[in-house]
TrEMBL record:
InterPro entries: Glyco_hydro_beta-prop_sf (IPR023296). It comes from the Bacteria. This is Uncharacterized protein.
C-alpha cells in the first residue's frame, strides 16, 4: 500500500473549507501564539494518481493523513498548511496501515502533544486494529513520535478488559466484521486534557459492551521526551446513550470560574462499517459535570443532542470564551451531505452556554480565492 499526499493548496478558503483535492472529516484544534487558530482533520485524496475517483465510502481502502489549516481571523478564512502526520507504511509499526483522529494540545513547556490513532497493518480481515499513539510537534511538523503504542488492545488486552472495557477475543481484535454483533473495535480518537496541576489526561472512544459506546480515560506521565500510561480508569458511559453504539471524538473543556466541565462528543448507531451515512443517526452531544471524573449530565433534561447541527459530525471548539459564555466552533459535513458539501467543513458557528443555543450560518457554499 502506497500513499500520495497533495502539497499545500495555494487557495484561501472562506465560508468553510471545500478543498479542491481532498476529502476532509473529523476536527480538532488549538489556539497558538498570536491567537492563530490551528485546525486539523483527517484527509484522503479525492482521486487516485491515475485520475480515478476515491469516493467517500472508499476512504478506508486508502491511507489517511492529518491535514493542517490555520486562521488569523477567527476562522473567517483558512490557509492550507499541508500534512502534519501520515502513517509509517511498510515499517511494521502500530501506525503502519493508516492513522485516524486524535488531538493536539500545548504542554507547559511550549511543546505540543499530539495524540492520534494508529492502525496496524495486519491482514485484510483484521484491518481495524487501533492503538493510542503519542508524538511531539511544533504544530506544523512532527518532531518525534513513539514506535510503541501508549495503549494497545492486542498487547494490553488483559489490563484493558480488567478495567471494565469491552474488547473482542485477542484473535478477533480489529476484525472488519465487528465485535460480538456490534461495530468494529473502538480504541481511537484520543483527546489531550491538561488539568490545573499540569497532569496529562487522555479521553478516547471505547466500548463498555459489544454495542455500548463509551469513553476511555487514562492518566499519562511524561518522562523527558517519552510518555507512559500511569493509570487506566474504568469506561465512562453517558446517561442518555441507550442507542449509542459508537461514542467518538470526545472533547472536554473547563470553565474554571464556574467550575463546569463540558464534554462534547459525536455519537452514532452504526453496526457495520459498510453502512452508508444516510442510514445512520449521527448526533453531536453536550454533557456537563462539576468534576473531570463525572458523573456527566445532559445539558437539557430532554437529552444531550445539540440542536441545529444536523449533517455535521466530529466538531471542534476553536476558541472557548467562558467570560462571554460562548464557544467558537467548526465541524465537517458528513458524507450524507452529497457531492457539494459532504466531507467539507462548515462555516464557523457559535454555541452559547447560558442558556445553550447554537447559532450557525446558513450554508451558501465554501469559497476559495
Amino acid at each position: 500500500m502506497s500513499q500520495y499526499i497533495h502539497p499545500k493548496s495555494p487557495q484561501t478558503f472562506t465560508n468553510g473549507i471545500r478543498h479542491p483535492d481532498l476529502h476532509l472529516w473529523d476536527a480538532w484544534s488549538f489556539v497558538g501564539d498570536g491567537d492563530v487558530l490551528h485546525l486539523y482533520s483527517l484527509a484522503v485524496p479525492k482521486a487516485r494518481q491515475d485520475g480515478t475517483p476515491i469516493t467517500g465510502p472508499e476512504r478506508n481502502d486508502t491511507p489517511f493523513h492529518v491535514r493542517h489549516f490555520s486562521s488569523h481571523d477567527l476562522g473567517a478564512s483558512w490557509t492550507d498548511e499541508g500534512s502534519l502526520i501520515a502513517p509509517r507504511i511498510g515499517q511494521g509499526l502500530p501506525d503502519s496501515r493508516t492513522i485516524w483522529s486524535g488531538s493536539i494540545e500545548p504542554l507547559p513547556d511550549g511543546k505540543k502533544l499530539l495524540a492520534y490513532t494508529g492502525l496496524y497493518a495486519l491482514d485484510a480481515e483484521h484491518c481495524f486494529a487501533q492503538n493510542i499513539m503519542l508524538a511531539l510537534s511544533d504544530g506544523y511538523e512532527v518532531e518525534s513520535r513513539e514506535d510503541e503504542a501508549l495503549i494497545c488492545p492486542i498487547r494490553d488486552w488483559k489490563a484493558i478488559t480488567d478495567a471494565g472495557y469491552y474488547l473482542a477475543p485477542p484473535d478477533d481484535i480489529g476484525h472488519r466484521g465487528g465485535e460480538g454483533g456490534g461495530p468494529i473495535l473502538a480504541w481511537r480518537d484520543p483527546f489531550v486534557f491538561i488539568d490545573a496541576d499540569d497532569q496529562i489526561h487522555l479521553f478516547w472512544s471505547a466500548k463498555a459492551g459489544p454495542r455500548v459506546g463509551a469513553m476511555g480515560h487514562g492518566l499519562v506521565r511524561r518522562e523527558g521526551r517519552r510518555f507512559r500510561l500511569e493509570k487506566l480508569y474504568p469506561p465512562v458511559t453517558i446517561p442518555d446513550g441507550n442507542d449509542v453504539t459508537q461514542l467518538e471524538l470526545p472533547k472536554i473543556y473547563h470553565d474554571a470560574r464556574r467550575g463546569t466541565y463540558y464534554l462534547i462528543s459525536a455519537t452514532c448507531n452504526r453496526i457495520d462499517e459498510r453502512q452508508p451515512d444516510e442510514e445512520l443517526s449521527k448526533t453531536i452531544r453536550l454533557h456537563l459535570s462539576s468534576s473531570l471524573d463525572g458523573p456527566w449530565r445532559p445539558w437539557n433534561p430532554e437529552g444531550s443532542a445539540l440542536p441545529g447541527l444536523e449533517g455535521l459530525f466530529g466538531m471542534t471548539v476553536l476558541e472557548a470564551d467562558f467570560d462571554r459564555g460562548s464557544l467558537l466552533c467548526i465541524a465537517p459535513y458528513t458524507g450524507a451531505g452529497g457531492d457539494e458539501r459532504g466531507l467539507t467543513f462548515s462555516p464557523c458557528y457559535r454555541i452559547d452556554l447560558d442558556p445553550v443555543r447554537v447559532s450557525i450560518p446558513s450554508y451558501s457554499g465554501a469559497e476559495s480565492g
